[in-house]
Write a structure and sequence with these properties.
Number of helices: 2
Strand content: under 5%
Shape: rod-shaped
Largest sheet: none
Length: 88
């Protein structure tokens, strides 16, 4: 399991735990509590989305770098093969 997934999972569990504890100990009325819960859920969704997009971009960039390395190595091997064939 990669570190990014562990961080997102921990964040998600922490947010749910915090919201649950907040609801159980909330001194406000039901309407106020629901409004706070809605705002917290929206903020959580935005934070989670931002984190997921950041991790996705990092993974995409790493994959692109790896692919570029393989392409360079492949071109080098093709050039070596071409030189070997032209010598014979």
């Amino acid at each position: 399991m990669n570190t990014g997934f562990k961080v997102l999972t921990g964040f998600f569990i922490g947010a749910i735990t915090g919201i649950t504890i907040g609801l159980l100990t909330a001194p406000d009325s039901g309407i106020r509590t629901r409004k706070k819960l809605q705002k917290d859920a929206q903020r959580f969704a935005e934070d989670f989305s931002d984190s997921a997009l950041k991790k996705f971009k990092e993974a995409k960039d790493e994959l692109n770098d790896t692919l570029e390395d393989y392409i360079k190595k492949g071109k080098g091997q093709v050039e070596k093969l071409g030189k070997t064939v032209s010598k014979n």
